[in-house]
Amino acid sequence: MLKKYLIAVIVLGMALFVGCSKSSTSHNPYENYSDQELLDSGWENYANNEFEQSLDFFNEMINRNTRLSEANNGLGWSYAKLDSLSKSLNYFDEALAENPSNQTKDDCLAGKCFVKDAQNQAQNCLDYSLEISNSWQFEYDQNLNYDDIIVLRATSFYSLANFSSSLIEIQKLEPDFQVDVSTVEGRISLAEKIESLRN
Predict the structure, then answer these.
(1) Dihedral sign, CA of 156, 158, 160, 163?
(2) Which domains does the chain have, with CATH numbers?
């Protein structure tokens, strides 16, 4: 009886040891993903407004030390969508420091421009906007392009009380729009036009 008891205790102990050692071995859910699959999955989650999940894929790329400019760009846009604006700017800066492609560079600068607009830092937004190619189209959201940068520029100029420059930006998009910005009424009309284009 004692022998059976000892055998049972030993078997149970071994089972517990094996079970614990298996559970303590962390399994990386992304180990079978290629770098491109990580990037695609990150942006797919971003497109589906699943920004926390997109962070996971981009962070795995950082962990692998691969395609850092693209991964940091993804982190920048994802954090911006999560309203973590300071983190967003840090990741855009990290991406820009990695000698990115022209597309990724423009994506990061545009991202910084949007973040600075959200932070009501009009001059910074203008500064970044000057560096963006006028053919910019956000690769991962076809609804964002250089026209949106023009609207941000118009907004920034307006915030800085440079109403004539703000009007010039709007007229790049709507050449027939005419108001007298030296008048209160003209400035109100310009503000309403900017607001309508932002929406």
Answers:
(1) positive
(2) 35-100 (1.25.40.10), 123-199 (no CATH)
Q: Kind and range of the H or E element at 169?
A: helix 163-173
User: Residues 73, 104: contact at Cβ < 8 Å?
Assistant: yes
The reported pTM is 0.84
**100 near 70, Cβ under 8 Å?**
yes
* Rounded-to-integer distance, Cα 190 and Cα 179, Å: 7
CA 104 – CA 113 distance, rounded (Å) = 14
CA distances from 162 to 16, 53, 167, 169 (A): 73, 41, 9, 11
With contact defined as beta carbons under 8 Å apart, do 51 and 43 qualify?
no
Give the DSSP letter string of 22-56. HHHS---TTTT--HHHHHHHHHHHHHTT-HHHHHH
Q: Give residue-wise pLDDT tens across range 4-22.
A: 544 444 544 444 444 444 4
What the block records as the tokens of 77 is 């846009």
